[in-house]
Amino acid sequence: MHKMPRIWLHYAQLLASSRRVTRARRVCDRALMSLPATQHERVWEVYIRFVGQKHVPTDTALRVWRRYVRFDPAAAEDFVELLERRGRPGEAAAQLARCLDTDKFMSVRNRSRHEMWGQLTDLITAHPAEAKEAGLKVDAILRSGIATHGDKGGAGRLWAGLADYYIRSAAFDRARDVFEEALAGVRTVADFSLVFDAYAQFEESMITALLEAQGEDGAAAGANGGGGVGEGEWRLENYGPELDLDLHMARLESLMDRRPELLSDVRLRQNPNNVHEWRKRVKLFEGDGARQVRTYTQAVKTVEPAKAVGQLGALWAEFAKFYEAHGDATNARVVLKKATQVKYRTVDELATVWCEAAELELRQKDYQGALALCRGALRDLAEGIQYPQSALRKNLKLWGFCLDLEESLASFGEVRKAYERVLDLRIATPQIVLNFAAYMEEHKYFEESFKLFERGVALFRYPQVKEIWATYLRKFVARYGGAKLERARDLFEQALAAAPADESRPIYLEYGQLEEKHGLAKHAMGVYRRGARGVAEKDRRGMYEHYIARAADLYGATKTREIYEEAIESDLLTEADVRQLCRRYAQLEKSLGEIDRARAIFVSAASLADPSGGAEFWADWNAFEVAHGNEETFREMLRIKRSVSTAYASTAVMTAPTPADAAKGAAGASAPAPAAATQAATAPSGGDAMAALEAAGG
């Protein structure tokens, strides 16, 4: 029955439980030779459990495990753990290195390759001698891991492990070289921090060891009676000839001083197109002009304009200003000339560079040179010129700068030509139109100025054209007054036709003032009346109040009665606005001595004044009755107030949800209707409504 696995398994388990190591091992080997390969997994399960017992010698267990790993490579991690537990770190590192060298190896413990590299690094650095005995090429192995994970981050731990390996092997110069290479090669700030801290700790430990060695040397000299110690009578083990304390102190200080520069190197390795980091790097070398120039030069050569993070044009401008600050305007011009040929991502960056070039000439007192630069930048280029240079002639930023220079330095004809070109290119803004018109007015070309306003209002729409219309109307009226009244009226009508309701109030007011000053009062009243109806709802009451005030000044207070009545009876105002106008109307009648008319206004407007929201109205009426009424009129006011209050309360109750509606939305919640609502609901539909409401209110 040598082909039956069950017999072999029982036999092996019996021998293993009897602690017969040699016989159990031989039986397991015979079972593996007798049974087919498809049954070996069952035998290996018993075999591995047997050699894992404490009484099985380590060499036997390891030999069995080596055979098992060849059968099942996925068990390599368990084998590594066993080797560490049995005190074989060198072989464990070798086995782990073989796993990492296999591209298809997959961890059965769901560990990443980076974690496995970390474990290998820890094994090698903790046991360098055993790693050498195992025949591991530590340097090559760890460098392969660094090459694999360097770009992804996480290489700092491997670099620190490699340096630690050389430190434990007493190869301190080699360890220092590894640290320097790591600082020059890591690509993430986290890796840099790890390597830098390990490097600093290494130098500090060297200094500490030297101080301790010198202290021991001094103590030995004292014990010998102060006779001193001859050369070679003591040495610091594992530190070789590195006993120069001042040298190590200088190295540590230099390392700390270099940290900002090294960190900048790391960030630029991450993204060499980071303009912000290049500008920070220049500041690191403040006071060292040569280093700053080299840094600027390296930056402008390295950064790719299409991939730049930040304003590349600003970097070029700072480079030029650096030369200018040191009195070298010639090189500053050379830098800016090269900067204007760069293919920036946006036209604004290129325009900024041209503006900087012109400002440099202005600072050098070469005003015509600055103007010539701007004109050259904005000229029409030949076909074939690529973006952004091809689009520079339509850049508003550069045109604005150029127009300022034209106005300051050029003749009237050249300035006018420049403005006309901006309008022809159809890139003008409302502010440019206003500036052009103001320039023409300043040189006494008034009609030309008004033509520019006409072009402006034709080019733009609200809200951009608002300021153009306002300036146009103001300038025209100030220039001609009533001399060209019909033309002024036409302009105001055009402005009103173009303006939306919420922007028309200022135009109506200016139009009315024009008619008052240069036209007819009747026309002015017509304008104000149109304005009261044509402006937005939020401006209507204010427009009516202005209309009333102007009517009172022009025709007297009695003329305003018609306006008050028209405003109150119209549907244009809100209830709150009507209530306020009624208060003003009543005050007017009271000032004219028309007490009955004033009281009638209060009575008429009472239905719009909810006592809870119209407290000012009722306070005015109360003060009016106290001053001019009697007991009967005061009682009538109170009766009307109660009636209005009841009416508003009834309306609120009737518009509230019924119990049935509330039950649908609140799962059966209900509330009894107020008595006032019941009485209001049962009141007769005909007859005096005020009497019915008064009856409902008790």
UniProtKB/TrEMBL annotation:
<dbReference type="Pfam" id="PF23231">
    <property type="entry name" value="HAT_Syf1_CNRKL1_C"/>
</dbReference>
<dbReference type="GO" id="GO:0000349">
    <property type="term" value="P:generation of catalytic spliceosome for first transesterification step"/>
</dbReference>
<feature type="domain" description="Pre-mRNA-splicing factor Syf1-like N-terminal HAT-repeats">
    <location>
        <begin position="1"/>
        <end position="73"/>
    </location>
</feature>
<keyword id="KW-0508">mRNA splicing</keyword>
<dbReference type="InterPro" id="IPR055430">
    <property type="entry name" value="HAT_Syf1_CNRKL1_C"/>
</dbReference>
<keyword id="KW-0677">Repeat</keyword>
<feature type="domain" description="Pre-mRNA-splicing factor Syf1/CRNKL1-like C-terminal HAT-repeats">
    <location>
        <begin position="305"/>
        <end position="695"/>
    </location>
</feature>
<keyword id="KW-0539">Nucleus</keyword>
<dbReference type="InterPro" id="IPR003107">
    <property type="entry name" value="HAT"/>
</dbReference>
<dbReference type="GO" id="GO:0071014">
    <property type="term" value="C:post-mRNA release spliceosomal complex"/>
</dbReference>
<dbReference type="InterPro" id="IPR055433">
    <property type="entry name" value="HAT_Syf1-like_N"/>
</dbReference>
<keyword id="KW-0507">mRNA processing</keyword>
<dbReference type="InterPro" id="IPR056350">
    <property type="entry name" value="HAT_Syf1_central"/>
</dbReference>
<dbReference type="InterPro" id="IPR011990">
    <property type="entry name" value="TPR-like_helical_dom_sf"/>
</dbReference>
<keyword id="KW-0747">Spliceosome</keyword>
<comment type="similarity">
    <text>Belongs to the crooked-neck family.</text>
</comment>
<protein>
    <recommendedName>
        <fullName>Pre-mRNA-splicing factor SYF1</fullName>
    </recommendedName>
</protein>
<feature type="domain" description="Pre-mRNA-splicing factor SYF1 central HAT repeats">
    <location>
        <begin position="77"/>
        <end position="303"/>
    </location>
</feature>
<dbReference type="GO" id="GO:0071007">
    <property type="term" value="C:U2-type catalytic step 2 spliceosome"/>
</dbReference>
<dbReference type="Pfam" id="PF23220">
    <property type="entry name" value="HAT_Syf1_M"/>
</dbReference>
<dbReference type="GO" id="GO:0000974">
    <property type="term" value="C:Prp19 complex"/>
</dbReference>
<dbReference type="Pfam" id="PF23233">
    <property type="entry name" value="HAT_Syf1_CNRKL1_N"/>
</dbReference>
<dbReference type="InterPro" id="IPR045075">
    <property type="entry name" value="Syf1-like"/>
</dbReference>
